[in-house]
Amino acid sequence: QVQLVESGGGVVQPGGSLKLSCAASGFIFSNYAMAWYRQSPGKERELAAWIGYDGRDTVYVGSAKGRFTISRDDAKNTVYLQMNNLNFDETAAYYCKRLGEPVSWGQGTQGIVSA
């Protein structure tokens, strides 16, 4: 079965950084575009970053642009999200998503930005 397992969340001070990982299994990882979404309390889940199947194309949305970097390592079946200069607005559950049909989601990992 398809599995996406996020890790790397935690508590960081404003201005700090986190690097999230999503370990994938149960499918041919290199054939699929991947994405990171985030959901803060009181807000809908939103796309933060997307990466194409071959890692050559990336998209960043809103406040993620210029501060987040998405990457993938097909040899490790893993997609990463490097998050820098975090502020309180980035406190959220972060979810890994496999594009295509059917869509698959990970369980999420919590990032907390706290002074």
Explain the overall architecture.
The chain has no helices and eleven strands. The chain has about 120 residues and is mainly β. The protein is globular. The N and C termini lie far apart (about 40 Å). A hairpin with a 6-residue loop joins strand 4 (about 35-40) and strand 5 (about 45-50). About 30% of the residues are buried.
Separation of the first and last Cα atoms: 40 Å
Classify the beta-strand content into a percent band.
over 45%
- Estimate the helix proportion, in percent: under 10%
Tell me the number of strands. 11
Give the SSE string. Answer: EEEEEEEEEEE
Low-confidence stretches: none
Globally, the shape reads: globular
What does the radius of gyration come to? 13 Å
Q: Total helix count?
A: 0
What does the main sheet amount to?
7 strands, mixed
Secondary-structure-based class equals mainly beta
Mean pLDDT: 97
Name some characteristics of this structure.
single chain; 115 residues; mainly beta; 7-stranded mixed sheet; 4-stranded antiparallel sheet; 50% strand
Brief characterization of the structure:
With 115 residues, this protein is mostly beta strands. The protein has strands at residues 3-7, 10-12, 18-25, 34-39, 46-51, 58-60, 68-73, 78-83, 92-98, 104-105, 109-113. The model has no long low-confidence stretch (mean pLDDT 97).
